[in-house]
Design brief:
With 212 residues, this protein is mainly α. It has helices spanning 21-32, 46-63, 67-78, 130-142, 150-156, 163-174, 192-200, and strands at residues 86-88, 92-93, 110-112.
């Protein structure tokens, strides 16, 4: 578990320690293909997984966001389930990246955070069209009309070293960075940025021990 401000001085991994995209994607594919069962909807097909990979790579190219970071957020938010439900708190978070009021989704069922189970009767698309998969990745990476994506957060976070990726991840989850600069403080999932860093260096099924 990483703590502190996301810098290599604080012990966070440099980009040279990240694994390459193909290796990272292949390592997570089995989890993607088993990720939808928890929502009682069909698991990802080979074609859907291939469409997701292509979408991540293409949108990384157009937004300048590293494809590995996009993939890490996808795994963090939905474990790669193309039919993941929409979560709802102050706004709707649909799709692979649980974006800010995005339009891309293959499951319009939603669950309010803090409540058990799915709380609305929506529509599930099987198969999930390539166009929807691409929209989900675009919404989370390039942002939506009502909320920022990784591209905007990278611009806002203010650093140029490797910490920019971890800071953007913290903002994606919690909306902001604690004034102390500590990426383990603030709203929502305390270990989110640390989890992303671990995913970027090859973590897939290692024990998750968040003590923050």
């Amino acid at each position: 578990m990483y703590t502190g401000d996301g810098s290599t001085a604080a012990g966070w991994p440099a980009e040279t320690e990240w694994i390459d995209f193909d290796t990272m994607f292949d390592a997570n594919t089995a989890n993607m293909k088993a990720s939808c069962a928890q929502w009682a909807v069909p698991n990802d097909t080979d074609e859907e997984v291939a469409d997701m990979k292509a979408a991540i790579q293409d949108i990384a190219g157009t937004t300048g966001v590293d494809a590995r970071v996009i993939l890490a957020i996808v795994m963090q938010e939905s474990t790669g389930c193309v039919r993941v439900i929409t979560t709802q708190y102050s706004h709707f978070n649909p799709g692979l990246m649980q974006s800010h009021n995005g339009t891309g989704t293959c499951n319009t069922n939603n669950a309010a955070l803090g409540l058990p189970g799915v709380v609305s009767d929506g529509t599930v698309q099987t198969p999930c069209p390539d166009s929807e998969i691409r929209q989900m990745i675009q919404d989370g990476t390039g942002g939506t009309s009502s909320g920022d994506g990784l591209e905007q957060l990278l611009e806002q976070q203010g650093h140029t070293d490797v910490s920019r990726w971890y800071r953007a991840a913290r903002m994606y989850n919690g909306g902001s960075i604690d004034p102390s600069g500590d990426l383990g403080k603030g709203c929502c999932t305390a270990c989110y940025a640390s989890d992303v860093a671990n995913r970027l260096t090859g973590w897939v099924n290692a024990p998750h021990d968040c003590t923050l």
